[in-house]
Design brief:
This protein is an all-alpha fold. The chain has a domain of 205 residues. It is 78% helix and 2% strand. α5 runs antiparallel to α6 and α12 packs across α14. The radius of gyration is 21 Å and the shape is globular. The relative contact order is 0.18.
Length: 330
């Protein structure tokens, strides 16, 4: 009799654990969003609209990987929006002068790497609060772009087919190349975070730096590398954005960092560090992108879209804080 009771209770406990997983809850939310707008907005679930949304989601998804990695390590990076604008300048200028996509991308990556090194060094080795460091970097980069461009767009005069393909090209004629790049990067970094020693170090450092240090992890090195990863991934997103708009825009990436942070926190990545997954972050990105697309399909003004996104950020952060306090109380 006891054995029968144990065997019948096991499936229910398993189901309970499954449905308490953050990713499952987010997947249910995404399905609800898709079903609601498929019933209320015309052509919402058409193949063209779905692939367009995936292409639009690729930028916050790519940058969100780096943002999530930094958050999990216990730090923040809000300089990524301005970095999108900053790396577009050397990218476009070098391509216009050399007619070479490879050289342009190398110049953009060099700027991204330099920003990541500065952010990481000042935070991890000097000990300045990462919010202050990246906030300062955000203004430095944006101001630098304004000064260099004179607040005028620098057009892509080279018009290289390979560069334009980053925006207009589609894999097998269906999936935008930018979305394919995002999926590949998500798979690679998801594997690293789950199955490689460095991923475990990031979670350990974000969860409790002192315990991680006693375990033999180089806490400063881990955080330093996380900032470099964040800046390089934001650089990749910036390259795709520059291809999409066909120029270096001084306004590129405005409020982008807040979209990424919103999706990351919505995806269950804790601001306190040590908690979250890239799968959850990706689902957070998709929820916000499909929500925004559906609201546009219903004719809702952009202002209301911003209000709704802000409410989602507040709700997600509040929920994260509530979970953290309950965990501490337990």
């Amino acid at each position: 009799m006891t054995i029968a009771l144990q065997s019948t209770s096991h499936p229910s406990s398993t189901l309970e654990r499954i449905f308490h997983r953050q990713e499952v809850a987010l997947l249910v939310c995404l399905i609800v969003v898709l079903v609601f707008f498929s019933l209320t907005a015309d052509n919402f679930l058409s193949a063209r609209n779905i692939t367009n949304v995936l292409g639009q989601a690729s930028l916050p998804l790519i940058a969100g990987i780096g943002c999530a990695v930094v958050f999990i390590s216990g730090e923040v990076d809000i300089s990524i929006g301005s970095l999108l604008a900053a790396i577009a300048v050397p990218l476009i200028v070098i391509m216009n002068d050399s007619n070479s996509l490879a050289l342009g991308i190398a110049g953009a990556l060099a700027i991204g790497l330099a920003v990541g090194i500065v952010n990481g060094y000042l935070t991890a080795y000097v000990g300045i609060n990462s919010l202050i460091v990246t906030l300062g970097m955000m203004f430095v980069l944006r101001g630098g772009v304004y000064l260099y461009t004179g607040q005028r767009a620098i057009p892509d005069n080279a018009a290289l087919d390979s560069f334009i393909a980053l925006s207009d090209g589609r894999l097998f004629g269906v999936l935008p190349y930018s979305a394919a790049i995002a999926i590949i990067l998500l798979a690679v970094f998801g594997y690293v975070m789950r199955h490689r020693p460095f991923g475990r170090q990031i979670y350990a450092v974000g969860g409790n730096p002192e315990v991680a240090r006693l375990a033999g992890y180089d806490v400063r090195r881990v955080k330093f590398i996380c900032f470099i990863i964040s800046s390089l991934l934001a650089t990749i997103a910036g390259i795709i954005l520059a291809a999409r708009v066909g120029s270096a825009q001084h306004t590129a990436g405005l409020t982008f960092e807040f979209q990424v942070v919103a999706a990351t926190v919505l995806g269950g990545v804790s601001l306190a560090g040590g908690i979250g997954s890239l799968t959850g972050m990706a689902l957070g990105v998709l929820i916000l992108q499909f929500l925004s697309n559906g609201l546009r399909g219903l004719g809702l003004p952009t202002e209301w879209q911003l209000v709704i996104t802000g409410m989602i950020i507040i709700a997600a952060v509040s929920f994260d804080e509530l979970k953290r306090r309950r965990a501490q109380g337990a």
